[in-house]
Amino acid sequence: MDMSMRILVVDDFATMRRIMKNILKQLGFTNISEADDGSTALEQLKSSKFDMIICDWNMPKMTGIELLKTMKADDDLKNIPFLMVTAEAQKQNVIEAVQAGVSNYVVKPFTAEVIGDKLKRVFG
Amino acid sequence: MDALIINPFIVATKNVLSTMAFIDSKPGKPFLKKDNAARGDVTGIIGITGDANGTIAVTFEELSILKIVSNMFGEEMTELNNEIADAVGELTNMISGQARKELAEVGKVFEGAIPSVVMGKDHSIIHITNGPKVAIPFGTEAGNFTIEVCFDR
Predict the structure, then answer these.
(1) pLDDT per position as a tens digit, B93-143
(2) More exposed terminus of chain B, fewer Cβ within 10 Å: N or C?
(3) Are B84 and B132 in contact (CB under 8 A)?
């Protein structure tokens, strides 16, 4: 795995962005940006290149699943790996995300080990 | 109110705090709360709709939430501020999500709203639904917190 890959962390809660950035730094990643909802993430995705999206589901303006579907419909963005990290743990959520093309799915709460393992699976 | 609805919130609360903040919390005896006074200094509250409609509140004493968020961030938090409020919102969100997952597994499907947070000494928690308010006190090494569950049936 390229530890200098550019990762975009998307969550409306600053707490979760902070925790995720701490975990990614612990895991050795050095190039991390953040966005506070799907629409601001989309703006960033259109203006610069990212190698990985780690995204919450429930957010104001544009949700994580809406961002995922929008990216999959865009030829420039559809191949960027997308890890959904969410408190929405019910089966229908997981099924909807899989059908939309999510790379993997993490249910909150999570440990650093879980995030590391999921990233390995995405890039393995 | 059915104990089947209450227990998943107790399990979810313990799980969220142990996973995200490495804190062991011990639930005390649930009781019916008659007043609106918050038992804590900062409260996260979230609406839940589905098989029943209601609200869940998680209210933390200052020392307990400072320790919890310090552990979550890996740095010491010394005062109640916007960072603490944001963290309480996210904790409430995670507790709601975990509990709703467990409830869905026994056929009770709920959806959660986006949480709100109230902070300050002697604030009130007013549940909009007109049902019994079940409070479950929790103890941690750093202080106490209480969850309140109120459903219309």
Answers:
(1) 999 999 999 999 989 889 998 899 999 999 999 888 888 999 999 999 999
(2) C
(3) no
Mutation choice for A interface testing from B13, B93, B117 by most A CBs within 10 A: B93
B86 → closest Cβ in A13, A87, A111: A13
- Parse chain A into domains and list their residue ranges: 6-123
| CATH code at position B44 | 3.40.1550.10
For residue range A53-108, what is the model confidence (pLDDT) as tens digits?
A: 999 998 989 999 999 999 999 999 999 999 999 998 888 899 999 999 999 999 99
> How many Cβ pairs within 8 Å bridge chains A and B?
61
Contact list in A for residue B16 (CB cut-off 8 A) is: 108-109
Q: Which of B73, B83, B96 minimises the CB distance to A87?
A: B96
Distance from the B111 Cα atom to the nearest Cα atom in chain A, whole angstroms: 9
Task: Give me the residue from B69, B86, B97 closest to A87, CB to CB.
Answer: B97
Chain A positions touching B75 (Cβ under 8 A) are none
Query: What pLDDT score does B1 carry?
Result: 61
CA distance A115 to B97: 18
Q: How confident is the model at residue B62 (pLDDT cuts 50, 70, 90)?
A: very high
Q: How many domains would you assign to chain B?
A: 1
CATH of A6-123, one of 3.30.470.20, 3.20.20.10, 3.30.1120.10, 3.40.50.2300: 3.40.50.2300
